Amino acid sequence: MVDQPVWEQIGSSFVTHYYQMFDSDRSRLGAIYTDASCLTWEGQQFQGKLDIVKKLTSLPFTKIAHSITAQDHQPTPDCCILSMVVGQLKADNDPVMGFHQTFILKNVNDSWVCTNDMFRLALHNFG
Amino acid sequence: MSDGDYDYLIKFLALGDSGVGKTSFLYQYTDGKFNSKFITTVGIDFREKRVVYKSTGPDGSSGKGQKIHMQLWDTAGQERFRSLTTAFFRDAMGFLLLFDLTNEQSFLNVRNWMSQLQIHAYCENPDIVLCGNKCDLSDQRAVSEDEARELAEKYGIPYFETSAANGQNVNQAVDVLLDLIMKRMERCVDKSWIPDGTVRANGNTNADLSESPDKSKCTC
């Protein structure tokens, strides 16, 4: 069996870790961002660990579960990893909705951090 | 359901905080059922129902029945991830604004929903019916009928205490909303301010649309 490329391994373990944290205690997500990280959440922009965590923790649901349908990872020319996730989520008792999320991961001092994060719901009839 | 044999297509939106029972309310209206574990199929975002509307003149005489194809739109819960945009409100003619009688915050948020409506709806005073839902849970009631009526009066909109669980006042609330919309249409000779495509005479029934303003003039 051929080993997975290293970016696939890093990317997929990041994705697993990210959604586990998001679904259990999203206030801990600060650990994966830096003060220069950017989040675009449904078109709204946030920069820096503090603002990003503030946004994520202020989302008005108490329970959330993500289910990952597919993910793709690529190495970038500057030695980062680009990851795209397609999945479904369920917030409290609302209907299941699709979503897309894209990350750029960068190696800083021997650990991987998320420098860029973009999120959109995959809804097309609601504007 | 999707055949074109109707006189008017009318789109309604159900609004209100998450968990107030919008989906169950619409399900009760279209299917006459309540399912407390109701889960929508992903991709299905509105329900449909056909009704016959009989306009009543000021003298109480009822006119010819008109076939109405109603589309009832629901949110998928995306308001938790982002604010609803103008695109969501596009083409909607009438609004069912729901709150949960057992949840005071959902009642307080009615004001926010009203201002959202004033910003995003096709005009500043669209037709709205306020529904205090879950009135079957009387032992958990957190909002009195009086304070709800008072708020509805302040906005000049009808109020109903409804139960998606047992069906109480569900049909009445939608009927009153439909009546408000049909009356607005009859009042309006120049229909240019009605959102495009939401109300249309269908096929050979075109005559009904152009006739109706004249008819209402006659009865006045």
UniProtKB/TrEMBL annotation, chain A:
InterPro entries (UniProt xref): NTF2, NTF2-like_dom_sf, NTF2_dom, Nuclear_transport_factor_2_euk
Keyword presence, Nucleus: yes
PROSITE patterns: NTF2_DOMAIN
Keyword field: Cytoplasm, Nucleus, Protein transport, Transport
GO cellular component: cytoplasm; nucleus
Domain of life of the source: Eukaryota
Keyword Protein transport attached: yes
Localization of this protein: Cytoplasm; Nucleus
A GO biological-process term: protein import into nucleus
Start and end residues of each NTF2 domain: 10-121
SUPFAM superfamilies, per database record: NTF2-like
PANTHER family: NUCLEAR TRANSPORT FACTOR 2
UniProt function note: Has a role in nuclear-cytoplasmic transport of proteins and mRNAs.
Protein name: Nuclear transport factor 2
Species per Swiss-Prot/TrEMBL record: Periophthalmus magnuspinnatus
Source species taxonomy: Eukaryota, Metazoa, Chordata, Craniata, Vertebrata
Automatic annotation (TrEMBL), chain B:
Enzyme type, top EC level: hydrolase
Entry-linked Gene3D superfamilies: P-loop containing nucleotide triphosphate hydrolases
Membrane topology: Lipid-anchor
GO cellular component terms attached to this protein's record: late endosome; membrane
Keywords: Acetylation, Disulfide bond, Endosome, GTP-binding, Hydrolase, Lipoprotein, Membrane, Methylation, Nucleotide-binding, Prenylation
Catalytic activity: GTP + H2O = GDP + phosphate + H(+)
InterPro entries, sorted: P-loop_NTPase, Rab27a/b, Small_GTP-bd, Small_GTPase, Small_GTPase_Rab
Entries under PROSITE patterns matching the protein: RAB (PS51419), RAS (PS51421), RHO (PS51420)
The protein's Enzyme Commission number: 3.6.5.2
Molecular function GO labels: G protein activity; GTP binding
Primary site of residence: other
Family matches, as CDD domains: Rab27A (cd04127)
Cellular location(s): Late endosome; Membrane
Listed Pfam families: Ras
Family per similarity comment: Belongs to the small GTPase superfamily. Rab family.
Protein name (Swiss-Prot/TrEMBL): small monomeric GTPase
